Amino acid sequence: MAVSFAAVNLRTMALRSSSKLLRRSSHLLPPIHMQHSAPPLTRKISMDARSIASQLNRSGLLKTQGLIGGKWSDSYDGKTIQVYNPATGESIADVACMGGKETNDAIASAYDAYRSWSKTTAAERSKLLRKWYDLLMAHKEELAQLMTLEQGKPLKEAMGEVNYGAGFIEFSAEEAKRIYGDIIPAPMSDRRLFVLKQPVGVVGAITPWNFPLAMITRKVGPALACGCTVVIKPSELTPLTALAAAELAIQAGIPAGAVNVVMGNAPEIGDALLASPQVRKITFTGSTAVGKKLMAGSAETVKKVSLELGGNAPCIIFDDADIDIAVKGTLAAKYRNSGQTCVCANRILVQEGIYDKFAKALIDAVRNMKVGDGFGEDVVQGPLINEAAVKKVETLLQDATSKGAKVMLGGKRHSLGFTFYEPTVVGDVNSDMRISREEVFGPVAPLLRFKTEEDAIRIANDTNAGLGSYVFTNSIQRSWRVAEALEYGLVGINEGVISTEVAPFGGFKQSGLGREGSKYGMDEYLEIKYVCLGNMKKE
Ligand code: ADP
C-alpha cells in the first residue's frame, strides 16, 4: 500500500499545482465552465498543504494505516482509498482500505485488551485520558489543519472543534472517578443489596465526516473511562484526523488494543462488528438509514445501541424576539460547517409580524459571509463535502422553487467552483416541500411563515426527527412553554450553538437513542449489576 503516501503526495501536489497537474477526483470536479472560472486558488492552497505536510510529518501525525492491537497496519490485500481535499479536489492521501478480516482482528485485540483495561483503577484510566487530552490540545493546530484539509471547514471552526472534541476526553477523565454504584435498603434484615456499574465490553464506534474529531472523542472518551475498549470506524472521507487522534492516544500511553481503528469497506466493517458476539455495544453517528440497519443488525447478538441520527431542526423566531440575537443565533445554527451538521437549523419558522424585518436582516448578514478555502483569511464558509452533497441541495431547492418558494439570496453554486455553494436564503417555504421534510445539509436557510405559538409548535413537531431545535423570544413564559412542548432532545433558547461536553446530546423519535456527553453519556457504556448478599446473621 502507499505507506509513503501523503507527505510525498502533498509535496508533489504543491509542485504540480503551478502546472495545474493536480490529481482530482472526477466526482469532485465542477462543471466545465466552472473549472475555467475558478480563480487562482490552487497555488495558495498547495502552499498551505506543503507546510501542513511538513508540520504533520514532524509530529508523526500523518497516518494512513489502520491501528490494530497497537500496531499500524496496511489492509491485508494492500488496497487503499484516496482522501480528497474538498476545496480543491486534490488527493491528499491514500489510506488503507480494510474490510471484515481486519475488523475481526481489531475486535480480537480489543477483546484481549478489555481483560486488563477493565481491571485498571479509575484513577489510572483518568490519568491516561488526561494525558491524551493534553496531547490533543498540544497538537491543536495540526489537528485543525488536517481537518480543514480533509473536511473543508474553516480553520477557525476546526480549531473550535479540537477544543470541543478534546473537551470530551477531559470530561471523561474527570468522570471516570465518579462511576458510583448504590446500596439499596434491603427488604429483609439478613440481606444487603448493592448496585455495581461495570463496563459493557468491546464497543464498535462508527462516525461520520462532518466532525472528524469530536464524533470520535465523544464516544471513545466515555467508553475508555468506563473500562471499555473500542474499535473505531471513521468515515472514509475524513480518516486522517481520526488516525492522528489515535496516534496521540498511543503517545499518551493508552494500552495497545484499547483503541483500534479500521476504515475502508463500510458495510463489511459494519457487518463484522454486528456479527461478533464479543462486541457488546454499537455507538453510531450518521444517517438515519444506516442507523436503522445497525440497530436491526444488533438484534442478532442483542447489543446495546446508541444512535445519533438525522435531524430536522426548527428555528422559531417569534414576533417578540430581539432581532439581532435572532439573526446571530440563526446564522450560527444554520451556516456552521456550511450547514452540514445534524443540529443545523433546517426550517426557520418566522412569525408573520416580524417575517419581513427578520428576512431582510438575515439576508444582510448572510451576504457578508466570506466563502472560500478553509485556510483563507476571514473565511466563514468552506466547500460542501462532495458533489453528492451539492446535488442534494440543488434537488431540494429545485423542488421548493417549483412549488412556490422564492430564492431571496444565493441559490446556486459559487463561482469558486468545486463543491462551493452560495450561502442561500429562500422564502415562502411551506411544510409540503421536501426541503421542510428532509435535511438539506447545506448552506440554505428556508423561511416558513406562521401565525400563532400553537401553529409554530405544530409545524415544528410535524416530523419524524427530534434532535436540535431553537427558539427566539423575549418572553420567559413563552420560552418555557415552547421548550416543554417541542419534541426534541435539545432546545436552544436565544442561542444558536448549544453543544458542549457537559450537557446531554441526543434525539427524540427517529433522531436516535441514548445521550452523549455529560454524566448521562457515561451510562451508555455501563451495565448495571445487582448483587444480593444473603444469610448475614449466620456467623
Ligand atoms: P453520512 O451521509 O453522514 O455520510 P452515513 O450514515 O452514510 O452518513 O455514514 C456515517 C458512517 O457510517 C460512516 O463512517 C460510514 O462509512 C458508515 N457506514 C455507512 N454504511 C455503513 C454500513 N452499512 N455499516 C456500517 N457503517 C456504515
From TrEMBL:
Pathway as given in its UniProt record: Amino-acid degradation; 4-aminobutanoate degradation
Record InterPro entries: Ald_DH/histidinol_DH (IPR016161), Ald_DH_C (IPR016163), Ald_DH_CS_CYS (IPR016160), Ald_DH_CS_GLU (IPR029510), Ald_DH_N (IPR016162), Aldehyde_DH_dom (IPR015590), Aldehyde_DH_Superfamily (IPR050740), Succ_semiAld_DH (IPR010102)
List of catalytic residues: 308
EC number(s) stated in the UniProt entry for this protein: 1.2.1.24
Gene Ontology process terms (BP): gamma-aminobutyric acid catabolic process
Keywords from the named record: Mitochondrion, NAD, Oxidoreductase
Catalytic reaction(s) noted: succinate semialdehyde + NAD(+) + H2O = succinate + NADH + 2 H(+)
Superkingdom field: Eukaryota
CDD domains in the record: ALDH_F5_SSADH_GabD
Aldehyde dehydrogenase domain ranges (all copies): 72-531
GO cellular component terms, A-Z: mitochondrial matrix
Location in the cell: Mitochondrion matrix
Single annotated GO MF: succinate-semialdehyde dehydrogenase (NAD+) activity
First and last residue of the signal peptide: none
UniProt subunit comment: Homotetramer.
Record-stated family: Belongs to the aldehyde dehydrogenase family.
UniProt name for this protein: Succinate-semialdehyde dehydrogenase
Organism: Arachis hypogaea (Peanut)
